Amino acid sequence: MMELIPLGPGFGAEVRGVGLFEVAARDEVYIQVRAAFEEHSVLVFRAQAITDDLQVAYSQRFGTLEIAKAASLGEGTPFSILTNIDRATGELVPPNHKEALRARANQLWHTDSSFKAPPALASVLSARVVPPHGGETEFTSMRLAWARLPEVQREQFANSCAWHDYAHSRSKIAPELASDRERSTMPPVCWRMRWVNPVNGRPSLYVASHTCAIEGMAQTAALTLVDQLIADATRPEYTYLHRWQVGDVVMWDNRATLHRGRPWPDNLHARHMRRTTISAGDADGVADLRPVRAAA
Ligand code: OGA
Ligand code: MN
User: Fold this and answer.
1) SS3 of 163-200
2) Site to substitute for ligand 1 among 101, 259, 264, most atoms within 8 A of C-beta
């Protein structure tokens, strides 16, 4: 029997009694877990006998998997690999290494693949090697952030559109972190600032570290507003901090949450995580996310 243990301040749940294997194998378990995902936004599974095949079989239940983006580890496969272990040597990468800088960019509050079309519905992250301390992942609910906004902002943002650009968030860490190939394969995309969940009708605020502009606003004002919205959404009392153990799998709703990695002494300790990412479809509310141009 599936049990849900509440985790965070108003969102997040640990799933007990069923695991990834049962979701992959049995329709009725998938339906229950899918409902829990729609409701709680972050699901934690502990002590999973995780393999790449099981992670893919689980993730595919929820929709089409993204193929890892150009110039990333795992390119061309369904896995985004987050690691500070050099594949060739088995040693830890130096602090100026691209993967070390990428880990730093992941430490900015973001939602996965808002810079892609279609954007991501969900991410599934499994812990393969974890450091003895640090390296947690922190989450906040953008539904609760939306609900806390003053009415006038909710009205404004319901019809505002924002641009999302991978190169923008990377440039906050190092100007050239996004390569030419990444820039040309991932041009900026524009989405509404409110994403309504079609299953339960709950709106969430859709902005993150990748947001580089808001339609109809001067850029400096837009970036100041986005920073302010993110700061308000992520105050410590609103977040859930996940402390990883090997075998943990965490799934989150990219429509309704922001997340960030937390630092760890990456010159001393290995960390290896593998992520599958599920693209959002029209049934997940993407149709409503596309900008509507005002009629002339
Ligand atoms: C991710 C991510 C943060 C972390 O996998 O999308 O942002 O803690 N991870 O590794
Ligand atoms: Mn991420």
Assistant:
1) EECHHHHHHCCCCCCCCHHHHHHCCCEEEECEEECCCC
2) 259
Pocket of ligand 1 (CB under 6 A): 82, 106, 112, 123, 125, 137, 259, 261, 273, 275
Going by alpha carbons, the residue nearest to atom 8 of ligand 1 is 261
Do the bridges between strand 120-129 and strand 272-279 make them parallel or antiparallel, or are there none, so unpaired?
Answer: antiparallel
Q: Which atom of ligand 1 has the smallest separation from the CA of 106?
A: 7
Measured in angstroms, how far is the CA atom of residue 111 from the centroid of ligand 2?
A: 6
Give the residue whose CA is nearest to atom 9 of ligand 1. Answer: 261
Digit-by-digit pLDDT tens for the chain (296 residues) are 999 999 999 999 999 999 999 999 999 999 999 999 999 999 999 999 999 999 999 999 999 999 988 878 888 899 999 999 999 999 999 999 999 999 999 999 999 999 999 999 999 999 999 999 999 999 999 999 999 999 999 999 999 999 999 999 999 999 888 999 999 999 999 999 999 999 999 999 999 999 999 999 999 999 999 999 999 999 999 999 999 999 999 999 999 999 999 999 999 999 999 999 999 999 999 998 998 765 44
Q: Which of 71, 133, 123 is nearest to 99 (CA)?
A: 71
What the chain holds in terms of domains, given with CATH numbers, is 12-295 (3.60.130.10)
* Cα–Cα distance measured from residue 113 to residue 66, given in angstroms and rounded to the nearest whole number: 9
